Amino acid sequence: MAQRLIQPLNRARVTASYKWGGAYQREFGALHYGQDMTGGPIVYAQGEGTVAFAGWDNVCGYVVGIVYDDCVNHFDGGHRPLVGRYYHMADVRVKKGQRVTKDTRIGTVGNTGKLTTGPHLHVEFDTDTRYPAYTPTLTGHSNLLKRGLRGAKDTTVDPMRVTHCKASGPDWQAIATGYGREWVDPRDAQIPEIQ
Fold first, then answer.
1. Do 13 and 175 contact (CB within 8 A), yes or no?
2. pLDDT tens figures, 101-117
């Protein structure tokens, strides 16, 4: 049965959207293949899945990758397994091969790694579950993450297309957008609520 993934932070503010506008690209010289958010500070798994990798990455800091079971895309109504990748955490609380649920703490919001300008969580989603550690965010391999293959089709997915806000207990989630339109798509705060 397909699952609806929920936010990784119960209280979240989106600070940089997925491939939104040109401000991020002008600032950092690359597209933003994920979504940045502040809040938390506890980072939870977003649904049921298996940890594909977890630990210290010498570019993105403390990272976790989870292959989630069949996930609903509320934008197009489809569903499929997805990889969720989480970067810059202050710590990691899970291990490779561990099964997780939405109640599993995977880490804490942090400011680790080279590609960060302040405390936040970077979240990426990808349909390529065969190679969960491959990311278009990197221009070269690091010790844990791998640069996506040159010339390969972009298999990333906008996190807001597969994320839902669980506004009921025990999660009591809320989401808002921050900064201006140059960095953040205001629609990111309008994800579907589930009970």
1. yes
2. 999 999 999 999 998 88
